């Protein structure tokens, strides 16, 4: 993973995946400031990353492996034909809720979305933050992504802060448990969603909320249902203006 001046965050749902980056030195523009290049060769690199929610991260053969804790359960249900591979909440939620209720007891309440209507269980997902690199005005993110399960969806978040511009790691912020709603409404950020086989589009949205900024080809699903791809995001901000351009390339 080759990162130039950015905060990066990954949201993993029911699938698990590997993140891989081996950027040759000659490919790096000498005029650019390289904030971090992750080769995932040693376990020590995991110290730069923070997992929130129901997931785990490990390093294997030069790759960062990201796996939801309940993926083995979901995988067995998909293979048995009990649930589909489409990551449909109404299908998997009863099984996921039962498993998490057995683990957390009354604390399962923190995994419910509470609105005007009946509370909805939204647990079982996780986020992984890079806590070393801060966002600058101009930056690029590049990484290779390989899904290790056919179930969608994945996201990359960047330019993240609290609603009052504080650090996302500020102790004054509410605790987070890997819920999408925490990231959509409790902070300011941009998110790029990808690896959605039926949609085959990558969506760029701004939070708070779900403001659509741009849409492009999902390079991971553009050629086959279970493929690999290199994802890149470039953000120039001339004169401090909030103008954003994004590219996705193989």
Characterization of this structure:
The protein has 250 residues and is mainly β. It has a single domain (2-68, 126-240), classed as Sandwich (Jelly Rolls), CATH 2.60.120. It has three helices and 16 strands. The strands form three sheets. Strands 1, 3, 4, 6, 7, 11 and 16 form a seven-stranded antiparallel sheet that branches. It is globular, with a radius of gyration of 18 Å.
In short:
With 250 residues, the chain is mainly beta. The chain has three helices and 16 strands.
**General form:** globular
The CATH architecture classification is Sandwich
Q: What about the largest sheet?
A: 7 strands, antiparallel
Terminus-to-terminus distance? 15 Å
The SSE string, one letter per element, is EEEEEEEHHEEEEEHEEEE
CATH topology: Jelly Rolls
Structural class: mainly beta
From the alpha-carbon coordinates, what is the Rg to the nearest angstrom? Answer: 18 Å
Number of E strands: 16
Strand content: 25-35%
Please indicate the count of domains. 1
Low-confidence stretches: 2-16, 20-28, 237-250
Number of helical stretches of at least 4 residues: 3
| Fraction in helix | 10-25%
The mean pLDDT is 77
CATH C-level category: Mainly Beta
What descriptive keywords fit this protein?
single chain, 250 residues, mainly beta, Jelly Rolls, 7-stranded antiparallel sheet, 16 strands, 12% helix, globular, disordered N terminus
How would you summarize the topology of this molecule?
Blueprint: E1 2-4, E2 9-12, E3 17-20, E4 36-37, E5 49-53, E6 55-60, E7 63-68, H1 71-79, H2 89-104, E8 112-113, E9 120-121, E10 126-130, E11 139-147, E12 154-162, H3 180-185, E13 187-194, E14 201-207, E15 211-217, E16 229-235
Antiparallel strand pairs: 1-4, 1-11, 2-10, 2-12, 3-7, 3-11, 5-10, 6-7, 8-9, 11-16, 12-13, 13-14, 14-15
